[in-house]
Design a protein that fits this description.
- There is one protein chain.
- The protein is an all-alpha fold.
- The chain has one domain.
- The chain contains six helices and no strands.
- Helix 1 runs antiparallel to helix 2.
- The protein starts with a helix and ends with a helix.
């Protein structure tokens, strides 16, 4: 029972931290390169704990992210729901990829996320973003091995299944 409680707190803590990192301001030149932290954390949890991650949780985290960041309501909810759906579908293969293969898969997932964001924003009437805007998925993919190892190490130290 204690492991379940710690696991739930650890999951909630990592998701809250990802939302806070999403709000962290960067210099204006680096802002387009900021990784999408909630997506990276949800990818990790979808790979490691399918019984705790659902499309409803991804939608809820997305709605919270929409509310705290002030973007179009439902934008991030749609993106995170689509992302988690794809990860849960390919989880059996993705889980056993080597790290460099996971980096490529995460890059593809984050690029797909950017494509969804682009379509939503174009329908909302916004202008086409600059080319540097496409760098954020690559930054997120480059951070993936470090984030994966950090979260996995903390999870094993806390003995969370």
């Amino acid at each position: 029972m204690s492991g379940m409680r710690h696991g739930g707190l650890y999951l909630a803590g990592t998701l809250v931290l990802s939302l806070l990192l999403m709000l962290l301001p960067l210099p204006s030149g680096l802002e387009p390169l900021k990784p999408y932290w909630p997506a990276l954390v949800l990818i990790y949890w979808a790979l490691e704990s399918t019984d705790r991650i659902s499309l409803g949780l991804a939608f809820s985290i997305g709605m919270i992210a929409d509310l705290i960041s002030g973007v179009l309501l439902g934008e991030q909810a749609l993106r995170l729901t689509a992302l988690v759906f794809i990860v849960l579908r390919i989880r059996p293969r993705l889980r056993f990829f080597r790290m460099w293969q996971q980096v490529l898969a995460v890059a593809a997932l984050l690029l797909n996320d950017r494509l969804i964001l682009l379509v939503v924003r174009l329908f909302a009437g916004e202008a086409v973003p600059p080319l540097i805007w496409w760098g954020a998925p690559l930054v997120g993919a480059a951070l993936w091995p470090f984030l994966f190892l950090l979260l996995d190490d903390l999870r094993s130290r806390l003995r969370i299944q």
